Amino acid sequence: MWLVLGLAVLIALLSGFLRSAAFKGWWGEYLVRRWLAQDLDAQHYHYAHNVTVRRQDGSTSQIDHVVFSPYGVFVLETKHLQGWIFGGERQRTWTQTIYRHRTSFPNPLHQNWGHVKALEEVLQVPLQHMHSVVVFTGDCQFKTTMPAHVTRGRAVTALIRSRQEVVLGTDTVAQLVSALARQRLQATRSTHKAHVAQLQQRHAAPAATRQKVMPSQPLMARKEPTLPRRPALAPADLPAVAPQAPLAQPAQAASIFTPAPCPDCGDSVVRRSLPDREGVPRYFLRCERFPHCRFLQAETVAPV
Question: What is the DSSP track for 47-106?
Fold first, then answer.
């Protein structure tokens, strides 16, 4: 009796573990590691898995896979999902549908773009030599047209091999592999827990900003203190005031802002403004994909 009961509990725990998000994520990354090792020539391709790097602002970025080759640096984001997948390149969230159950998840292209920028910052690799790849490893189907760098299953190796233009020398590839080995954080449970805690703190809104401060007493019950009245002054007692000159109008820019592509990612650049301490608007240019692209440039003149 106790043996049957223990076996049932063990099966239930094992079934729950196999359905957990942690196991699904680990299984998807394991499949990608195996495909990379089997399909890519180890003489030209070098791999790093479960990479966590620290950026200059103190934040961390966790990357599933990095592939170094003479044809560029490939940054891989793995998603192990089932069902139908709906999404677009510019959408903030994508949708997973299993029968009538729908679940939203962050756009993996935007998520992997942050990984690409972090690796560019740490390794000082030109952005044009880095390639973002998103691979879905589960039994899923795309129901919307996906970009060329989004793929399913083992096709990820064919996508990597499709790049045949040599952009990095052999010595450069070896230096990048060594640099990442020195600068990456240790792949331990504490490193992962610290990274997850940082993500939760970054995305959680401060509770103080959501609380509405209520007055300690009703407004009708408040009484303003009465101040003594000052004696009225006669016109002859008023001091003479010199007329003030009209305020000078701020000089306008001689040119009109012309939209231009972002020098970092190639998307559109937009103009924004923020008031300074004196209330004067200060204009700056930033990428339309901010915060996924961090391009930011101050503008020296005010717009027309």
Answer: EEEEEEEE-TTS-EEEEEEEEEETTEEEEEEEE---EEEE--TT-SEEEEEETTEEEEEE
To which H or E segment does residue 171 belong? helix 170-183
| Beta strands across the sheet bearing 281-287 | 269-275, 281-287, 296-298
- Helix (H) / strand (E) element for 2: namely helix 2-18
Q: Could you tell me the CA-to-CA distances from 209 to 62, 185, 205, 206, 216 in Å, in that order?
A: 29, 34, 8, 6, 19
3-state secondary structure of 133: strand
Can you give the pLDDT of all 304 residues of the chain as single tens digits? 677 777 767 776 666 655 666 767 778 899 999 999 999 999 999 999 999 999 888 889 999 999 999 999 999 999 999 999 999 998 999 999 998 899 999 999 999 999 999 999 999 999 999 999 999 998 999 999 998 899 999 999 999 999 999 999 999 999 999 999 999 998 787 777 787 777 667 666 444 444 444 444 444 444 545 555 555 555 555 555 555 555 444 444 434 566 678 877 777 788 887 777 676 777 788 887 776 777 778 776 544 4
- Between helix 170-183 and helix 108-123 the angle, nearest 10°, is 100
Strand partners, 97: 84, 102
CA dihedral 27, 31, 37, 41 (to 10 degrees): -150
Count the Cβ atoms, other than its own, within 10 Å of residue 275: 9
**Three-state DSSP class for 272?**
strand
Q: With H, G, I as helix, E, B as strand and everything else as coil, classify residue 242.
A: coil
